[in-house]
Design goal:
Number of helices: 5
Number of domains: 1
Strand content: under 5%
Structural class: mainly alpha
Number of strands: 0
CATH topology: Recoverin, domain 1
Distance between the termini: 24 Å
Length: 113
């Protein structure tokens, strides 16, 4: 298995452990590939759930640009829902998992078809 495959397996296990659901491996793989080399950078591969500036970046770069959503208060609400489910005590929130869960939360899986 490649390093990326190892990471995808790790993300799938995280989704199972933290969210109690089985990952759609096809979608998780596409979300992970879409993140490019950032998944290999320790800092860039994580999302800080308590950093408002970082959450704004997730909203702007992922929800608005990548998923093509329109600006609305529900975007930040969705981010907060995913962060709460991931667990505030969990310091290692993987960006690929957060993006995957946001994609599912907003029912935007079609972006990756």
């Amino acid at each position: 298995m490649s390093k990326r495959d190892d990471l995808i397996a790790k993300y799938a296990a995280d989704i199972k452990d933290k969210f109690g659901e089985s990952a759609n491996m096809d979608l998780l793989t596409k979300v992970t590939v879409g993140l490019g080399p950032s998944i290999y950078n320790i800092d860039a591969s994580k999302v800080s759930g308590s950093d408002e500036k970082e959450l704004e970046t997730v909203k702007k770069n992922y929800l608005l640009k990548k998923l093509g959503m329109s600006e609305s208060p529900s975007l930040m609400d969705g981010i907060k829902v995913v962060m709460d489910k991931y667990g505030s005590s969990n310091r290692n929130k993987h960006r690929a998992v957060v993006y995957y869960m946001l994609c599912k939360h907003f029912k935007k899986e079609s972006v990756y078809k």
